[in-house]
Specification:
Helices cover about 35% and strands about 30% of the residues. It has about 220 residues and is of the alpha+beta class. The relative contact order is 0.17.
Length: about 220
């Protein structure tokens, strides 16, 4: 993997663009935050506690907290994939919305449907505009960074996936603990080794084997 550019906010990565060699496999963890992940080139296959997610070019997913394994496959006539990540930290979201707390931060609030659904074209345009700042990171100051993050939130909350986005954003502030059996069931037919399953379950291999034995006994 060759990292292109990372734009930080208050010492934390906020926007990141990266290129990956085809057939690359990456393991990682998202701790106490979520990540909006957008493929600009190629395909990503991701495994985590909620199962398998597959993204093609110009497709996106909101990734939850937890361990994950990702595989990258380049498009035809290419040897690399490219992706953009936007990191969503609970404390940062709370700070930028401190004077206008959005509905997704309020527990047990009935949320009306948006008046108009916005499809992927707006997300594509957002990512296209964001590329300018990867070329000149110094131009994205703190005020602009907040505006760009708010813009993404508004696009996602008015997209066709608005319900799942609202649920996920709520879960960032009240993390959901996925039960061991649910992790196994969601990845039962996925191409993962026992070591991989242990990793996305956030367990050592020996602990995973012990838990698995106990769950089937």
């Amino acid at each position: 993997m060759s990292i292109g550019t990372t734009i930080e906010f208050k010492g934390m990565p906020l926007f990141q663009k990266a290129r990956f060699k085809s057939a690359s496999i990456m393991k990682g963890a998202i701790k106490d935050f979520a990540c909006f992940f957008y493929m600009t080139e190629g395909t990503m296959i991701s495994y985590d506690s909620r199962g398998l997610h597959s993204l093609g070019s110009k497709e996106a997913v909101m990734k939850h907290c937890g361990n994950y394994i990702q595989k990258y496959i380049a498009d035809e006539n290419s040897q690399e994939c490219e992706a953009v990540a936007v990191y969503l930290y609970p404390e940062l979201l709370k700070e930028i919305y401190k004077n206008e707390v959005p509905s997704f931060l309020k527990p047990e609030v009935a949320i009306p449907l948006p008046k108009k659904l916005i499809g992927n074209k707006l997300i594509e345009q957002y990512m296209s505009n964001l590329s300018i700042y990867f070329e000149s990171p110094e131009t994205l100051d703190e005020e602009l960074g907040i505006l760009k993050l708010k813009e993404l939130m508004m696009i996602l909350l008015k997209s066709e996936s608005h319900e799942s986005i609202r649920k996920l954003l709520s879960e960032i502030f009240t993390p959901v603990n996925v039960k061991f059996k649910e992790i196994i069931e969601r990845n039962l037919f996925n191409d993962l080794s026992l070591k991989d399953l242990a990793f996305i379950s956030s367990m050592s291999l020996s602990t995973f084997k012990r838990e698995f034995k106990g769950s089937v006994s």
